[in-house]
Amino acid sequence: MKINPNIAINENGLLFNPSTGESFRVNPTGARVAELLKEERSLDVIISKIQEEYEVDRYTLEKDIADFIQLLKNNALIQNNE
Amino acid sequence: MAKEKLTIAVSGLNNIDSPGPGVSVIRGLRQATSFDVRIIGFAYENLEPAIYIDQLIDATYHIPYPQAGTDVLLDKIKEIHAKEHLNMIIPNFDAELYSFMKLEEALDQIGIKMFLPDREKFEERHKVNLPKFGEKYNIKVPASKAITEAYELYELGDEFDFPYLIKGKWYDAYIAYTSEQAVNYFNKVSAKWGLPVVVQQFVHGTEYNVTGLGDGKGNTMAAVPMRKLYITDKGKAWAGISLDEPKLLELTDHFISQTKWKGGFELELMKTQEDEYHLLEINPRIPAWVYLAIGAGQNIPETLVNLAMGKEVKPYEDYKVGRIFIRYSWDMVIDREQFEQFSIKGVL
């Protein structure tokens, strides 16, 4: 799974989709997840990285990241599972 | 070496809330790096705002409406030409294009160039003929039908379902959800723009636009896709952003290579939830939002002039993605004498 390669992520947490012209504001955690997706990290790696960086239990994190990824998919920001 | 100075006449000076393309075209010409310009405005109405904008137009002339006939228009252009020595005319109104196409040869003979689609292409892309156009060039278009009587709205057939659009021959479009609304809009639109009126199946989705330029030999000289970010109650873009969407550029290349389109144009497309683009309309002239394309790196008016002048022109291959245009309105205060001079003498 990876974020569409042309998506621009700026330092203020804005995701810009240049093929639709849409912009999305995400919080710092969302921006970090998006960055990791752009680096083509696997879901397991992303979860581990975020767990290292934030104080959160794994169950909550997995659920939140799954929700976030679904949001990205709904907005055509992410390519489907490969 | 001094740059060549061209005298170019431009219409579409009605810079109102549904603006004509004239001001954007002129700004592009003024920013051209390959020539200098003297701009002559062609205005139909005394209060077209661009007539009075400082340092935009060098001289504006009143020209007759298309209904007056092409002979009257030609006489007027000859009269202006005698004073101004025009090199080129860029007509920007849908409703006037046909008259200018008819005059293409006559104008060429007196040394005035234009760069317009040929009459056959102009007719076949007309919204009245869009289904045939889609079939001929293998482009997805929504079901549409040209009608001349209101009762035909009750006999549209299975292709149409509510809501659908009632469109004027030249401008205006209304969404009808019931037959009563459809009849009402039919009467409104036909009273304003004449017959036929076009019924077009409404396609749900997000609207995208492309402005571009074809060289008449099948080559895309320029193309910039845009999505409207802010839309007025008339459906006009008040802000928009340039996009990187390869599918839109492919579709544009296909349109140009298949039709051998000559001149500027705007494609209006709807992207459905299935990610398919449906072509809603082809406007056979540069759109008012062309200044976004210029700001993104493709000066379409400049290239159009160079093509008309027979110069060798390289196609644009790139533009800046994510450039945003935002329109604004600006009140001018002018002296009554300026208005009177244009109203009475037809020149300012």
Task: Provide a descriptive summary of the structure in words.
The complex is a heterodimer of chains A (82) and B (348). By secondary structure, chain A is an alpha+beta fold. Helices cover 48% and strands 12% of the residues of chain A. Chain A has three helices and three strands, in the order βββααα. Chain A has helices spanning 28-38, 43-53, 58-74, and strands spanning 8-9, 14-17, 22-25. Chain A has a three-stranded antiparallel beta sheet with strand order 1-2-3, with helices on one face. In chain A, strand 1 (8-9) and strand 2 form a beta hairpin. The relative contact order of chain A is 0.21. The model of chain A has no long low-confidence stretch (mean pLDDT 88). Among the domains of chain B are: 5-115 and 331-345, Rossmann fold; 143-201, 2-Layer Sandwich (Dna Ligase, domain 1). In chain B, strands 13-12-9-10-11-14 form a six-stranded antiparallel beta sheet. Chain B has a four-stranded parallel beta sheet with strand order 3-2-1-4, covered by helices on one side. In chain B, strand 6 and strand 7 (173-176) form a beta hairpin. Chain B is globular and about 60 Å long. The A-B interface holds A 6, 8, 16, 18-21 and B 206, 226-227, 229, 240-241, 243-247, 321-322.
List the helices and strands and how they pair.
The complex is a heterodimer of chains A (82) and B (348).
Chain A: E1 8-9, E2 14-17, E3 22-25, H1 28-38, H2 43-53, H3 58-74
Chain B: E1 5-10, H1 22-30, E2 36-43, E3 59-62, H2 70-84, E4 88-90, H3 94-102, H4 104-109, H5 119-124, H6 130-137, E5 144-147, E6 164-167, E7 173-176, H7 179-193, E8 197-201, E9 206-215, E10 220-231, E11 237-242, H8 246-259, E12 262-271, E13 277-283, H9 290-295, H10 300-308, E14 324-326, H11 336-345
Parallel strand pairs in B: 1-2, 1-4, 2-3
Antiparallel strand pairs in B: 5-8, 6-7, 6-8, 9-10, 9-12, 10-11, 11-14, 12-13
